[in-house]
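FAQ: What does the model actually see?

It sees only this:
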Amino acid sequence: MGDFENRILQIIGSYPKGIKAKDIAQLMGCDRKDVNSALYGVLKGRCYQDSAYCWHLNSKGNGSGTEKPTITTTPDKRLSDLCRYYLNCLSLEESSGISAFLKSKFSLNYAELPSLTVDSSDETIAKLIAKVSADKKLSANLGYPVLIEKIHSSKTNQDFMLIAPVFLFPVEISGGAVSVAPVPHVNMEVIKKYSARDINSQVYDLVELENELGLNSPEVDIEPDELAARLQSIRDWQWRETLDPENISRTPPVSELSEEGIYNRAIFIVAERSPYTVGLESELSQLAGLDEDSYKNTALYDWIHYTASSGERGLPDDVPLLEVLPINSEQEQAIKRAMSSRLTIVTGPPGTGKSQVVTNLLVNSAWAGKSVLFTSKNNKAVDVVDTRVNALGSRPIMLRIGGSQYAPHLAELIEDLLSYSAGQTDRQEYERYKALYGEKIGAYNELKKKKDAVVALRNQADHMEQKACELRGTWEKWFGSVTEIEADSAEAAFNGYCAAYDRWHRTKSSFFGRLFWFATGSRKTAELASHTAALSEWLLKYELRAEATSGETPDPSAHKRLCTEGEQLIYALRTISEYREAMQELLAEPQLEDIDRTLLRVKSELSEIASNLWNKWLVTRPLNIDADNRREMSEFVAAMRLVEGPDLSDYPGLNKKFKQLQKKMASFLPCWAVTSLSAKGRVPFQPGMFDLVVIDEASQCDIASALPMLYRAKRAVIIGDPKQLSHISTLSKKQDLSLLQKYEVNMGWSYSANSLYAMASGLTSPDQIVQLRDHHRSFGDIIEFSNAEFYDGRLRVATNYDRLRCPRNVEAGIRWVNVVGKTTRPPAGGAYNDAEAAAIVKEIRRLVTDNGYTGTVGVVTPFRAQAERIRAAIERSLELVSALAKNDFLVDTVHKFQGDERDLMFFSPVISHGTPQGALGFLKNTGNLFNVAITRARAVLVVVGDFSYCLKCAVPYMEHFANYVGSIMLRQEKETKRALEYPADRLYPKVSNPEQVSDWERLFYTALFDAGIRTIPQYPVEKYKLDLAIIDGGRMLDIEVDGEMYHKDWNGELCYRDQLRNQRLFELGWDVKRFWVYQIRDDLQGCIEQVRRWCDK
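And it is asked to produce this:
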C-alpha cells in the first residue's frame, strides 16, 4: 500500500459520517476512477461503503467493501435458485452480440490466443480477467474464428476496423479460476454483417444457422473442427483463411489484418452487456435475497409457491362493468376475473379484441380505486395502450414511464391535475350519469334474462315435441284440438274406472263381501258399469277401440285390456296437451330477433352513457385531492423538471423523498405503462405496489424479465396467443438443461423453452383461462383458414364488413396470383424468388397506384432476402415510392407485422422449383409465423406464388392453405355473383351448400311458393347464407327455419352466434323472422300468413 492509498484512508478517517469517492477525488485533485480502483482493490477490507455510497473506515472488522446489515434473513430457496438460474442464462445469452476495435490507442478488449484454450497466466489475459472480475457489466468469451469488419463513423468521418468472433464459447471466471464452456453459440455481430437490418429477423436467422449446425440439439457433442467444416460448407461468407481449429493462424498478428472477412484466429474477448439486461440482473439479484415474508402478498409469491390458482375468483355477474368500449361476453368474463383473481390468463387470437379487454380493464380498475401496471416487451404495444386509454376522456389516468423523454410528459399530467378545478355541477352530473347507467344496466340484464327464458322455453318445447313425435302417426288429427282440460277429464274417467273396479273386486273377493253381496253387490256392480261406459266413450272418441263396451262387468282379461288402452290414452293426451301448452308459451313470448334488436339498441345507449360517466368521473377527480396531496404533487413536478428523468441517485435524501412521492402518484394516475426491461429505476421496486400487473404479448416474453414485474403487483393478468410469435432464445438447449440441473429448477421455468404465457398456463386451473373468440378484423375467408388450422374452429367471425376498404372493382377475400418462379438461396442463407418479387410489384402498381387506392398496404414474406428484394424493386421507382407514401406501406418479414394490420396485404411464400431443404425446414418449424402473416389482412389478401408447388411442398400448413384457397376459387366459380333472381319452380332449387339445408326449409319454400310468395333460398349476405330471403324494393326479410337445430338444444354458443348474425343483418337493414319447426309442422298456414303480413306492409 503506497502514499496514494494511505492518503485516501486519512481522508475517510476525518469524516465520521462518511464521504463519497467523488469528494475524495476532489480533495486529492485526482480522477475518481483512480480512487474507486483503490477502494475496490487494494483497500478492500480496510473500508466499507454504506447504502448512501459513503465510505467509512472498517473499525468493525468487516472484511467486505460494503456495509453488512445487522439483521440477517434466510432467502426463499425456491426464489433464490430460480433467480440465480436466470442470471446465469442471461449472462450466457447476452454475450450473443460481441465485437471490439481491432486497434486502439488504449488497452484492447481482446487478446489473441494461440489455441482454443485460455491461459490465465498470460499477462494480457490476466488483466482482462481482472477487468471482468471487477465489473459485473462485463462478460468474457473465447472467440473463434474471427470476422474483421470495416465500419464508417459519420461523426468523425473516419473508417474503423472491428473484430468479432463467429463462435462464442462463454468463459466463467470464479475466484481467478477460468473455465470455458464446451458448447458455443453464434455471435449476433456476424449475423448482422451477413444478414438483415431488422433485429427480429436476425434472431431467426441466427437460430436457423444454429439449427443447421446442430447447436440447439440437447445431445449436441460436436468437435470444433467438425463445426468449422460444416459452417464453411453451408455459408458462402468471406473466408480469408481455411478454418482449422487445431492449427490457429498467428501470422501476421490479428491486429495487422486489413482485409474484411473471416480468419482462422482465436481470441479472448471482453465486452459490456446491454444496460437493459444489467437492470434486469440487478433486480433479479435483489429478488434472490428475499425471504418468504418479504414478498408474500405479491403475484410473484403465488407463482413461486404455486398458489396462483387458489383464492378469489371473478366479480359476481350482478356487479356492472363500465363499458367505455363495447365488449362481448368473453371479454366481460376476462375483465371480471382480472378484477379479483390472483391470476387470469387471456388467450387472444388475431383480431379478437385484446386491446378492448386491456382498455376496459384499466378503466374499471381505476374507477374501482385500484392501481394497474401495464407492461410488454414491445414498445409499440405499450404506446398504443397509453394512447388509447388516455384518449377516452378529457383527463389522463395512464402514465407512460420510460426514458427521459417521458419525464416532461409525467410532469405535465400531474400539473394538469393540479390546475383543473371541478364544480358542484360536475359532481351532480356525475351522480346523474351514474344512476342512469345503473338503470340502463338493469334493463339490459333483464333483457338478457328474458332471452334466456325464451331459449329455455324453446328447449322445453323441443323436448316435449320429441315425446310427441312418436304419437304423430296415430294421433296426428288430434294435435290441434287436445287441451289440458281434455286430458284432465279423460284421466279422471280412467282413474274413476280403476277405483270402481278396485272396490268391486275387493268386495267380491273377501269373505264378508261375499256374505253381504246381496246387500251391496248390485250397487257396486252398477257403479263399475257406469265408469266402464264412461272410459269406453273416451277410448271410442280417440279410436282406441272400434265400439263401445257393454254395460256388463269386465272379466280379468277385459279389465287388463281396458287399463292398457286407458294408459295409452292418458299418455297421449297428456303429452299432446303439454306440447301444445309449451308451444303456446313459446309463441306468446317476443321473438328472439326482436329481443336481439332491443339488446343492440340498449347496448348502444349504454356505451354513450358510459362515455359520459367516465368523463365526468375524470373531471371530478381533482375534488378528492386535499391540500397535503396537492403540495406533494407540486414537489413531484419540480423534481421531475430538475433532472433528466427520475434519477436522483447522487442525492440520497431527495431520492428517498422522490420515491415516496412517486408511489403516491399511483393513486392520482392509477395506471402505469412501461416496457418490462426499462422498469428499473423508473418504477419503484416495492412489493405489491400495484394491485394488478397486466403483461401483454406474453407468448413472446421470457419468464425472467417478468419476475420483477410480478413482484411489484398483488395479482397478475397474462395476455397472449401461443399460436402467434413465440419467445426466442439464443441459449442452446444443452446449456439450458445443464443450468436447470445445476440450480435444481423445475423444467417448466426453462428460459429457452418456455414462454411466460406457457408458464402461466401451467399454474392455473382451466376456469382461469379466458379465450377470446369474436374476430373483428378480417373478411371471413381470410380468417377462416387460421380458424380451422390453428384454432380448431373456435373463432366466430364478427367483422363489420362496412369498415373494410377494398381497391376499386376488387372484392374482399383471398386471391392467388400464380407465379412459377425459381427459389434461390443467397450466400447469407434464407431464400428469395425474383419472379414473385416482380409479380408483387406489378400487382401493387395495378391494385394500388393505378387504382388510386388509399387504404393501408403491406407485403409480408417468411424470408428476409425476399423482403429486401421486393423493397429494393419498389425503391428503384421514385414514382412508386411517392405513391405508396399515403398507404402506410410496409414490406418486411412477419416480426415487423406482429400486432399490426393492413387493409390490403400481399403474401410471398417464395418456395418454388429449387427450394433448398434448409428453407423448407425453416417453414415447417414456423407455422406460427405463417398464422401471423396471413391474419394481418383486413379486406384483401393477395398470395403471389407457385400454386402447384405449394400444393405438394411437404410443408403441411402451406399445403392445407393452397388447398383452402383452391376451394374458395372453385366455390366462387360456381357461385358467380348473380343478380336478384327468384326461382321459377315450386321445387326447391339447387344450391351450393345442400348439406346445410333441412327438409323443413324445402317444405316451407314450396308452401310459400304455392301461396304466391316467392323467396330466394340460401341468399348470400357477406359471410352468412340466409335460409330464405325476400327483397322488396328497399325492404329485405330474412326467413330463418329452425331445421338444423331440430331436436337439439340451443345453448349459449348457438344463441351468441345467432345474435352476431342478427346484429349484422340489422345493421344492413334486414328484418329477421324465425320460425320454429313446430310452428311450420302444426300451423303452416299461420306461418305463411305472418310472411304475407310482412309483404303487405
